[in-house]
Amino acid sequence: MLEMFQICISLLDSTIRIATPLIFCAMAGIFSERSGIIDIGLEGKMLLSAFVAASVTFLTGSPWIGLFSAVVASGFASVIHGFACITNKGDQVISGLAINILASGLTITVGIALFSRGGQTPSLGSDQRFMPIDFPFQSLINNIPLFGDLYSDVISGHNILVYLSLLAVFVTYYMVFKTSFGLRLRAVGEKPEAVDTAGISVIRMRYQAVIIAGMLCGLAGAYLSIAHGAGFGREMSAGKGYIALAAMIFGKWNPIPTLFACLLFGFLEALGNRLQGVELYIIGEVPVQFMQALPYILTVILLAGFIGKARAPGAIGVPYSKEG
Amino acid sequence: MTTIEINEGNDTSVSLPSFSGSSIELKKITKRFGHVIANEEVSLKVEAGTIHGIVGENGAGKSTLMNILFGLYKPDGGSIYLDGNIVDVTSPEKSISLGIGMVHQHFMLVPTFTVLENVMLGNEGSFSLKKGEKTILQRLQKLSSTYGLNVDFHSLILDLPVGMQQRVEILKALNRGAKILILDEPTGVLTPQETIGLFEILNSLKNKGVTIILITHKLKEIMNITEAVSVMRGGKVVANLKTNNTSPAELAEKMVGRKVLLSIEKKESKIGNKVLTVKNLNHLSKDGVDVLKNVSFSISEGEILGVAGVAGNGQSELLDILSGIEQLQRGEIEINQTRLLPGEKWDPKKVREMSIAHVPEDRQKRGLILPFYNYENSILGYQRKERYSSGFLLDKNKILNLFTETAEQFDVRPRNPNISSNKLSGGNQQKLVLAREIESQPKILLIGQPTRGVDIGAIERIYEDLLRLKDSGTAILLVSVELDEIMSLSDRIIVMNQGKIVGETMGSNATEIELGKMMSGLDRTN
Q: CB distance A197–B33 less than 8 Å?
């Protein structure tokens, strides 16, 4: 019984760690897509900023400068996306895809040029990373049975970006649904003409949205390379941007349900890792590959079965032009 | 952005701006789109506190002109004067701050937002929505009671009928402090009752000093409600008239550039055998609503049966079933002695094989594939016919020849087969669809809203074509929300309300009042 509980605690712990970049990226997706711009480039922006975070941190020795650079770099990638599909009315999926391909190639090329380590960055010491923060009274609360473990492993003991990601969910919720900015954001994704005729610039609104999205992706990337990990590795985003996109759709472009979708996908991956090599009743040992594929399989099932009524913003993917 | 002084918490101090009225003058406005001149040296003057009509056919440049006045388009030349002072309207934001409000033909409302949210958009009052909501609600209540613009501020736009949505648009403009209100084809989507309601609102706005510019192509409305009228044709203003000194016939002539027959000459109908009989038709919509209840009627050769009713009372579903788009659920349809019962296969192909042609209500969605070329659209649904093909392949030469012939005959302009159909005006798109369907020489023609968004010259043409078809022995089922149209074309009229046929009358002795009563369901005894 106690062992089962321990397993649950450690599953929840890794769920949160795995879900953090998903949460940042999904919130990024919400800002962008609520404004009517499809953001398939979450993946690329995350990868790019992971690389920038690790490189800058290694070169300067400060994870904060690394984090800042990652956010700026990813924001810049968003501006490129915006220039292509807001200003020049290009295809949003193609532009996003281009960013993904660009990030994939650029990080490796520049990585080899800078560090000559086959695309990796040198690993970072613990003073160059965001380390777990231990909450106060840990030893005191630890004595409480069950809750003690929950407190020290699940609630406490994560790095600052994990907590920031949760904060990002609530800030996103507040921004999107409770502010004038959010009202305009939602309107510009549903019916840009209405925004234009209300005397607000559609172009400016959309740029603001994609840049915010880019900056959030920057946080996700930094988490991967200088908080959760200790350096950049090739293709380390490993499809998380797409999973985040799926979580956002699953959460119907709404931050709170999207948070739970991210946690669910995080949990599936954590479970997959946990079950590798474990003998199950009846089935026996499940192949590693199946467990690794599990989150994706379930994503497909969940997306196909449960979100039949998810409705994307009305004007998503459609460039806005006034005259004709 | 307009600033509105509101003393929070004290309802009586919510002050509406007092209008002294604003006049507006356009001088030599020119606007080009590429090589097309949409407005050429347009000059007109609107007196303060009046309702000024602007009439013209589709494509005459009315909407372009108003979009310039509202700051959406940048003019290539000319100037705008407000109360005698030259103003530079470079953006909607600027025009709103000058007190110009516009109700667009296609509403600029976010369908998933509430009324309140739509009104707040761009004028939220503070960063936190909650804070702004209170003041705007107060102001809205004041506005809506002053002008009779009643609407539930918390319902979603997509749940509101179009008449209500239009009120929201007016409220939006007034809330931003509009002293000049531009309405672009406001009655195109309204029922007769809603139109009366709108005109009451416009009159009360005028009495409070608001200057109103009304764009329309319905001459009756111009005569009813305006003080002055400007007529546009081909991007120019061809006449500025006082409404009292003109007549519908004069306006129509100026709009079209030639004399137009406003009344239709009908020959004596030669009514033959029954060709379509519908018995006890019942239909349940996808949402589980009874959209048709025990509908029974019949049409004979050489007869036009008009179906009158406020939009959304089952007429569209009736057309959908008869044209094979929807399956028959309950009831019976008899076409030329062939009986169709529920459960039998029924689709548009079979419909065409039974010599039924269909001109759908929404020509842009169902009648045409807009990006297709005209010649392609001219055979849509009939592509299997021998006269368009040689063997397995389509014969482009045959199609082009036939297109040239029919375009000539039905006056589709431009006659070019190789341009995509979305380049045609609404009237010419309709003529193209009608030409295609009539060319199939149907025994029965189903036609919905034949003249929606069609200009007056084309309307005349479409009526002539329909009457000629009828005289040749075709039975026509005409569904329209335009009472005038129903009354002037139909031999017999049935009226639908909430999925039922609530009345039937002969076309010759129908009156608007009687039909209006039946349409609103007031006349029902059971």
A: no
